Structures are given as C-alpha cells and as structure tokens.
C-alpha cells in the first residue's frame, strides 16, 4: 500500500505526519510524494482561521481530484470541528477526529481493512506496541534471529544474532536519563536471544540495568514466549521493572502453530501465562495474532479464537496474513480468501476490545504511579506500570509533564480503550 500524507497548519501537524510516516512504514506500507501514485491519502487539516478552513477544504478537494481511486482519510482541526461536512466531502472514506489522532494509523488500518503483516512482526517501533514519546525511549539491544518461523522475513533479512554489550546499553540509558527520559524499553528483533553470542542473557541484562542505572521505569519489548530467561518472574519484584509483557502467540491453534514453525504450543503458552499471573500482581499480557495463515480452516480458527479468549489478553495486535516472498509460508497451499480474513480479523478485533475493557475494569479502585506524557494541551494522560493508558483529570496548567504521579483509577472511558483517573495528592 502506497501512502501519501498532506498537512496544513502548525508544527504539531507536521510532527504528527512524521510519526504516522514512521508507523505506516513500519507496518509494511510505503510512502509516496506523488498523490497520483498513492493507494491511500491522509489529509491533516487546520482550522485556526477562516482562511485555514478554506484551504483545508481545498486541499481535500484537490486530493480527491488528483486521485479519485485512492482511499481518502481526513483528520485535524477542521475535520474535528466539522466532522459532518468533512465526511460528506467528495471521496472521503474516513474521518479521524483529533482525539484519536495518536491511533490514526491503527484506526485507518482497521476501518479501511489495510491490516497487512508488518515487515517484522516483532519490532515494537514498527508494530506500534508501545508509543514512543519524550519520556520513553527504545533501546535496541539485539539484532538477528536464529529461528525460522515460516511467515517471518526477519530471520532472512537480519542474519545472525548479535547483542550489544551491557556496558554500552547501560551508558546509553544513563545518558538518556540525564536528558530527562523516565522510561526505557529494551527491544530487539529477537529480544529473548539477547546474550546468546556474548555469554549472557536477557535476565542478566535486566539485572544490570536496574543495578547500574537509576532509570525510574524499565520495560521489555516483544518477547517470544519460549525464551523467557531463568527466574524471570522474580525480576518484577523490583518496582522499577514494569509488569507488562508482550508475548506473541500468533495463533491459538496447535496445527497452525506447527505450520508456522513456532516453538511454543498452546498448552505451554497457557502454563506460562498462569505462572506469570500467579507471581506478578496486575501483570498485563498482550499478544500478536496472525489471522488467515495459509490453510487456516474454520475449525482451526474457532480453536484459535477460543484460546485467545481464555488467555484474557490486555491488548491484541491483529495482522491479516500476507505472504512475504522468500519465506516458507509464502509457498504454502490453501491461501485464505481475503473476505474470510477480513471477517476473522473483525471477530478478533471485537474480542480484543472486550478483553481490553475487562482488563481495564479489573484496575478500577487501584492507585498507581503514572508517567505523565504530552504537554497538557489535549488533556493530561499517561501510562500505568502495566501499560494501560489513563486520562488524568487535572488543570491544563498543572505542570505534570514527564512526572510520575499517583493516580486513582476511577472509571473506564466510554470508548472502552482507556482509564479515567484522578491525582491523589495536591499538585
Ligand atoms: S522468533 Fe520467529 S517471528 Fe520472531 S524474529 Fe525469529 S523467526 Fe521471526
């Protein structure tokens, strides 16, 4: 899918364009400067003056005329202030209001059914697993993968496993912390393989980072369920190690997992999840699922759906399978028709939303430290230790940015994807 992004207005709009570009690219789409070559046009509008409104309308009209075949998405201030007029403008397929801008790429993927597998389903920056921010930094500690999951191109594209020495990782974290970063996420193409080439492992790296830095919050990115290091759970006893784990399952059907050459069957996955939840209070487990892997029958799909439901994930990343040339799966027989993939993906999205709501409801009444993000211009928000988004009731000028504050979790927002909370101490 080729994407063309247009913007009008302030620097904030431009910055958003940059982050959407990164996200679209990470999901396997490409960007084009030429609207006529695009399959998808995204127009970020402005409404600061009458003139800006007029220009926004014009930009929208021109985008459609330049390429009437492309899907057209409109967002930004004009689209938020006048959603009806925006939606009825020629050729508009979708309006994304400002309050949903941060999830624009995911919303567009879902609503316009563009979900294809990203280049690497394992890299959080590409999959949008965790949001990058001024308070959170991603530290790449590892590259390459020794496994051969049949859908994955990474293993071919990235070669042997290579790990960064712990000293280098710690020095980077200490530098970022001194620059104001409050939270770091250790990531890798195959993070669980960290240390295989330097006689170490991820557990040792986590221990050293906690001991040799003062970074207030440490997270790990996507971790294959079969390679959690020894005594992993006990590391969460340290309150600086955040209780959220993204364990990609990919399918809840053992026969599909076999065709994917995954090293963790559903029973082992279940045991792992049970063990983690027993040992780590409020552990949030999230996962990736590929829908419509070649040959996925209705029976396998139902098995997968029911297993996912039993796992009660806090969030799901859902990818419709798309073949990557050079991978073994690309040569497998019985591709799943597009319409069936779409239906299955829709069913799983609904289940994902329901599980997320249930996870959020279980948090109500708790008081947790929240790292506040943003600058308050769109309200205050942040993430709990177990990576749940909270909107915080506080005055816009409360100077909460980049602070870790205690928040009482009081309700789930009507949309069901975030919590609403209040600060518990005077600001
Ligand atoms: S473990 Fe599998 S999915 Fe993950 S990077 Fe390696 S080959 Fe790809």
From TrEMBL:
Residues covered by the Radical SAM core domain: 131-358
SUPFAM superfamilies, A to Z: Radical SAM enzymes
InterPro entries referenced in this protein's UniProt entry, alphabetically: Elp3/MiaA/NifB-like_rSAM (IPR006638), Methylthiotransferase (IPR005839), Methylthiotransferase_CS (IPR020612), Methylthiotransferase_N (IPR013848), Methylthiotransferase_N_sf (IPR038135), MiaB-like_bact (IPR006467), rSAM (IPR007197), rSAM_horseshoe (IPR023404)
Cofactors demanded by this protein: [4Fe-4S] cluster
Keywords: 4Fe-4S, Cytoplasm, Iron, Iron-sulfur, Metal-binding, S-adenosyl-L-methionine, Transferase
Organism domain of life: Bacteria
Keyword 4Fe-4S attributed: yes
UniProt GO MF annotations: 4 iron, 4 sulfur cluster binding; metal ion binding; tRNA (N(6)-L-threonylcarbamoyladenosine(37)-C(2))-methylthiotransferase activity
Record-given protein name: MiaB-like tRNA modifying enzyme
PANTHER family assigned to the protein according to its UniProt record, in alphabetical order: RADICAL SAM PROTEINS, THREONYLCARBAMOYLADENOSINE TRNA METHYLTHIOTRANSFERASE
Higher taxonomy: Bacteria, Pseudomonadati, Pseudomonadota, Gammaproteobacteria, sulfur-oxidizing symbionts
Coiled-coil boundaries: none
PROSITE patterns per UniProt: MTTASE_N, MTTASE_RADICAL, RADICAL_SAM
Claim: Thylakoid is one of the keywords in the record: no
Gene3D superfamilies recorded: Methylthiotransferase, N-terminal domain (3.40.50.12160), tm_1862 like domain (3.80.30.20)
Annotated MTTase N-terminal domain residues: 1-113
UniProt xrefs under SMART domains: Elp3
């Amino acid at each position: 899918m080729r994407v063309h992004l247009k913007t009008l207005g302030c620097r904030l709009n431009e910055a958003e364009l940059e982050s959407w570009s990164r996200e679209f690219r990470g999901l396997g789409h490409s960007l084009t400067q030429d609207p006529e070559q695009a399959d998808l046009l995204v127009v970020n509008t402005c409404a600061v003056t009458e003139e800006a409104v007029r220009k926004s309308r014009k930009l929208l009209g021109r985008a459609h005329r330049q390429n009437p075949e492309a899907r057209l998405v409109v967002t930004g201030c004009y689209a938020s202030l006048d959603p009806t007029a925006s939606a009825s403008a020629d050729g508009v397929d979708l309006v994304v209001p400002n309050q949903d801008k941060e999830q624009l790429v995911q919303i567009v993927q879902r609503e316009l059914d563009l979900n294809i597998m990203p280049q690497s389903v394992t890299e959080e920056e590409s999959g949008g697993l965790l949001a990058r921010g001024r308070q959170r930094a991603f530290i790449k500690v590892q590259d390459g993968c020794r496994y051969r999951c049949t859908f994955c191109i990474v293993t071919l594209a990235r070669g042997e496993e290579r790990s960064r020495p712990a000293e280098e990782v710690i020095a980077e974290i200490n530098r970022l912390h001194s620059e104001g970063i409050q939270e770091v996420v250790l990531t890798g193409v195959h993070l669980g393989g960290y240390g295989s080439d330097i006689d170490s492992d991820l557990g040792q790296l986590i221990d050293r980072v906690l001991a040799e830095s003062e970074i207030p919050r440490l997270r790990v990115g996507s971790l294959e369920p079969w390679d959690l290091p020894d005594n992993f759970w006990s590391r969460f006893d340290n309150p600086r190690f955040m209780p959220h784990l993204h364990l990609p399952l990919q399918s809840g059907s053992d026969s599909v997992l076999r065709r994917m050459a995954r090293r963790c069957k559903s029973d082992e996955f279940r045991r792992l999840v049970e063990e983690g939840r027993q040992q780590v209070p409020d552990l949030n487990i999230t996962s990736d699922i590929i829908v419509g892997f070649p040959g996925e029958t209705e029976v396998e799909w139902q098995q997968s759906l029911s297993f996912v439901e039993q796992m009660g994930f806090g969030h799901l990343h859902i990818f419709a399978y798309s073949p990557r040339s050079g991978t073994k799966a690309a040569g497998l027989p019985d591709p799943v028709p597009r319409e069936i993939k779409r239906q299955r993906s829709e069913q799983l999205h609904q289940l994902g939303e329901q599980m997320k709501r249930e996870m959020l409801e279980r948090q109500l009444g708790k008081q947790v430290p929240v790292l506040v993000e943003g600058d308050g211009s769109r309200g205050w928000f942040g993430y709990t230790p177990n990576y749940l988004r909270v909107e915080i009731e506080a005055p816009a000028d409360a100077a909460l940015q980049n602070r870790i504050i205690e928040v009482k979790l009081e309700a789930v927002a009507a949309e069901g994807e975030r919590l609403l909370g209040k600060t518990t101490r005077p600001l």
